[in-house]
Amino acid sequence: MSSGAAPAADAASPTREPLAVRLIGRGSLAGALLVLGIAALYAVVLPMVAERASAPAPPRIVDVGGGVSVVSEETWSEAVSDGGTTTLTQGGATLVIDQPHPSEGSVVARLDDLTADWIAEAPDGSVATAPRTFETDAGDDAATVVLQEPQQTVQAWVVSDGELEVIAVLTAPATAWDKTSSAAQALVRSMAFPETAP
C-alpha cells in the first residue's frame, strides 16, 4: 500500500512555473524585451516625469514702472495698483512699490528722512530700527528700516542705482511678519534698474 500511495502523491502536486514565465513565455525574445521596457520605464521615464511635475514654477517678473522690475515668487499676488505704485499682497501683508523717481541723495539719508516723517505720524509707542544697508542682486545701493507700531509692523526700503530711486513699503500684522518680511526682502533684493547707455 505504501508503494502505491507514493506515485499518487507525486501525480497530485505538479510543478508550477513562476508567474513571470507563465505571462511572458519561456525563452522568448518578446518577453525579454518586455521586461527591459518595463525596467527602462521605472528607471528612466518615471523619474523624468516626476522631476518635471515637481519643478517649481518659473519666477514672475513684475514691472514697477520706468523700466524697473522685481522678481516675484508665486506666493505674492498682484493687487490693483494705481497712482504710480505697484501693490503686491501675501498672507495679510501688503507691499507697495513706488515708481522710480530721480535719486535724492544717499539711500540712508533718504530713509532717515522718511523714518522721521513716519515716526511723527505713528501712534504712541512706535519705534524704528536704525537703517541697515545692503546691495541688491544687481549691485545697487539699498537700505531698510523697520517701524514697529502697536498693531502692525512696517518695513521700508530705498533702492538706488545712483540716478533713480525706488521706495518700497511692507505693512503686515504681527502674525504674518516673519514669513512676509523675508519674502519681501528677497523681492526687493531682486530689483533691477534699466541699463543706462554709456
TrEMBL record:
Q: Which UniProt keywords apply?
A: Membrane, Transmembrane, Transmembrane helix
Entry protein name: DUF4245 domain-containing protein
Mark the transmembrane ranges: 29-50
> In terms of domain of life, where is this protein from?
Bacteria
Phylogenetic placement of the source organism: Bacteria, Bacillati, Actinomycetota, Actinomycetes, Micrococcales
